[in-house]
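Record Thioredoxin reductase, 309 aa.
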Amino acid sequence: MSHIYDIVIIGGGPAGLSAGLYASRAKLDVLVIEKEKFGGQAATTAELENYPGSIENCTGPALVERMRKQAEEFGTTFSKDEIVEVDFFDDIKILKGRKEEYRSKAVIIATGAEYRLAGFKNEIELRGRGVSYCATCDADFFEGLDVAVIGGGDSAITEALYLTKFAETVTIIHRRDSLRAAKSLQEKAFNNPKIKFIWDTVVEEAKGDEILESLVLRNVKTGEISELAVNGVFVFVGLEPKSELFKGKVEMDDRGYILTDRNMKTNVEGVFAAGDVVQKSLRQVITAAADGAVAAVAAEEYINEKFNK
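=>
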């Protein structure tokens, strides 16, 4: 009979790492499975000014690496694998990965969310050749060049500010006439001489043979078409939950976000969810970490009641 874990956590971002830490401190047998890079989106975030205590040049990669090491020190184990099928029907949950099969008394889903496509022509074709979704990953490729940012929320403005460290100019393209970002971020952006704004506008097409050369723009109020010469464009227009694997397995809303109660319990006994994959009003590192802690404690209580009578 294969090994049965107390808790298997699917996803190694802040929610999964926090859950691993709390569950391991409770002396549970915990495995975190991550198919890509540990840390999730936080690992691609340049600065985390709004995470409590991160006041001395705290970067996303540095923070999540500390989280991972801390969980590991308390006994959390880690696996790089992709879960392709889940069976939550019985008391012992079965997770089938590309490498191996895992069995567990409880499962915490912490798969997060991914960047939404803007939907302009050639977006996919020029991805990685001028079209990017991660300023931290790609900003240095555009040193001394002109770039654009699509979006007007916190992520868009934070990444635009980061890009000014490398790019010659950063043009923020927003479909509305005002930003949705926090006022403190707006103030920084408006006061940065490298940042320009194009309001009431969407990108219709990315143009370029091998690499991005320009963007075709359309004013949503006047219909006027224009073209902006840029070497790169960074897209920050929202997130999509990474929940496809769990459709029909746990209850979700119409956008694919997993529904939980205040203790991060799904509608399936022994299955919990935490972080950006959950229906919620705020998706930040701090809320993901809090979700993970709550889910781990709830899972511990479930295991004690179900298996340790």
